[in-house]
């Protein structure tokens, strides 16, 4: 009898242990399933964190040939998508356009039809009711930075320096025409040009919101001669610096105004596309130098349907990150940009004063 009871107790003990083991496995299995569900939820939440934007539109001003800008900035589309994704935005398409002129990009930002614009300070200031500056471009300085045009001519070719700069000069350039060379010879002989000298030449300028192509040359004329661009008798407006250089090379114009490193950008084209007889350094001379101009901006639209503070911050960080990569530097070099730093509206107060002065002169 005792043996029977002992056998029953052992059997019962084994059954209990087996049941406990099954329960433990079920609990473990349920825990794994729960853990797996939690991971799936976590992954879903991670994916859901990125906001989707169908199209981000980016506008460029035509400071270079529009087709050249479109080609050079094609890689920017994927770079922006990648950087914006890391900032919490999945961009379906990056639409890059080049405005017909500087004002067209400013107007598009104000209207909200363009989300982001790479525009000069002068264009930003003119349209700052609808555009907000978020970044200022940095660029390489130049081997010459003098107020004296003769110094520029004596130290050609102009090269890039190792120092980064947040401002640049505008230059008044005389071309290979008879009148252009006459003005250059006078400057290189240390003589002062008169307004009559300048007025006897034909000029090419850019649109009125261009700092280097209009605003600062107008101030230079005012400071040195008490005159402005509208006082010149023979002036044409070019749609790009490239077309102005082509006119200068052919002798259609005698003088043009441009940013200081524009000749470096057109060294090859001067002979291959513009049919210059000599090199650009041989055929052109500086006859005027403006004060420094604060660098180009990356501005966003205040009236874009998709723009808010978070998106603005993401765009700001994305472009700064792009400017730190080799591929990004190659893309933004089309505008001679080498990187970006955060900007404030007050950085361009001098530009506002310059535009007010130009308005009063006109």
Features:
D-Maltodextrin-Binding Protein, domain 2, 2 domains, 362 residues, seven-stranded mixed β-sheet, five-stranded mixed β-sheet, globular, signal, alpha/beta, Phosphate/phosphite/phosphonate ABC transporter substrate-binding protein
Question: What layout of secondary structure does this protein have?
Answer:
Blueprint: H1 2-49, E1 51-60, H2 66-72, H3 74-86, E2 89-98, H4 102-111, E3 116-119, H5 121-126, E4 131-142, H6 149-154, E5 160-165, E6 167-168, E7 170-174, H7 178-188, H8 195-199, E8 203-205, H9 211-225, E9 235-237, H10 241-250, E10 255-259, H11 262-265, H12 267-272, H13 280-283, E11 285-289, E12 293-294, E13 297-301, H14 309-322, H15 326-332, E14 339-342, H16 349-361
Parallel strand pairs: 1-2, 1-3, 8-9, 8-10
Antiparallel strand pairs: 3-13, 4-5, 4-13, 4-14, 6-12, 7-10, 7-11
Describe this structure in words.
This protein has two domains: 158 residues, 3-Layer(aba) Sandwich (D-Maltodextrin-Binding Protein, domain 2); 145 residues, Periplasmic binding protein-like II (D-Maltodextrin-Binding Protein, domain 2, 3-Layer(aba) Sandwich), CATH 3.40.190. It is 49% helix and 21% strand. The chain is globular. Strand 8, helix 9 and strand 9 form a beta-alpha-beta unit. It is built from 16 helices and 14 strands. The strands form three sheets. Strands 1, 2, 3, 4, 5, 13 and 14 form a seven-stranded mixed sheet that branches. A five-stranded mixed sheet has the order 9-8-10-7-11, with helices on both faces. Strands 6-12 form a two-stranded antiparallel ribbon. The longest helix has 48 residues. The protein has 362 residues and is an alpha/beta fold.
């Amino acid at each position: 009898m005792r043996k029977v009871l002992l056998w029953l107790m052992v059997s019962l003990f084994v059954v209990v242990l087996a049941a406990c083991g099954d329960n433990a496995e079920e609990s473990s299995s349920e825990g794994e399933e729960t853990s797996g569900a939690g991971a799936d939820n976590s992954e879903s939440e991670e994916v859901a964190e990125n906001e989707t934007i169908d199209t981000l539109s980016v506008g460029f001003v035509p400071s270079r040939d529009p087709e050249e800008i479109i080609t050079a900035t094609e890689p920017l589309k994927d770079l922006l998508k990648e950087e914006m994704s890391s900032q919490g935005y999945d961009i379906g398409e990056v639409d890059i356009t080049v405005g017909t002129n500087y004002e067209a990009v400013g107007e598009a930002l104000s209207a909200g039809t363009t989300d982001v614009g790479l525009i000069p300070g002068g264009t930003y200031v003119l349209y700052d009711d609808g555009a907000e500056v978020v970044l200022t471009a940095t660029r390489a300085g130049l081997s010459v930075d003098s107020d004296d045009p003769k110094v520029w001519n004596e130290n050609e070719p102009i090269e890039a320096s190792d120092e980064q700069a947040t401002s640049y000069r505008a230059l008044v350039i005389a071309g290979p025409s008879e009148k252009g060379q006459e003005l250059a010879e006078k400057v290189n002989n240390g003589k002062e040009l008169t307004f009559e000298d300048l007025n006897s030449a034909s000029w090419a300028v850019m649109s009125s919101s261009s700092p280097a192509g209009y605003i600062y040359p107008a101030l230079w004329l005012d400071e040195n001669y008490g005159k402005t661009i509208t006082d010149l008798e023979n002036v044409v407006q070019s749609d790009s610096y490239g077309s102005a250089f082509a006119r200068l090379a052919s002798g259609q114009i005698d003088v043009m105004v441009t940013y200081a490193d524009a000749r470096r950008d057109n060294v090859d084209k001067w002979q291959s596309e513009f049919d210059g007889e000599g090199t650009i350094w041989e055929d052109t001379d500086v006859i005027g130098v403006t004060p420094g101009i604060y660098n180009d901006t990356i501005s966003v639209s205040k009236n874009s349907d998709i723009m808010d503070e978070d998106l603005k911050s993401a765009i700001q960080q994305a472009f700064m990150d792009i400017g730190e990569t080799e591929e990004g530097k190659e893309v933004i070099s089309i505008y001679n940009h080498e990187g970006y730093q955060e900007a404030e509206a007050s950085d361009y107060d001098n530009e506002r004063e310059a535009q007010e002065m130009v308005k009063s002169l006109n």
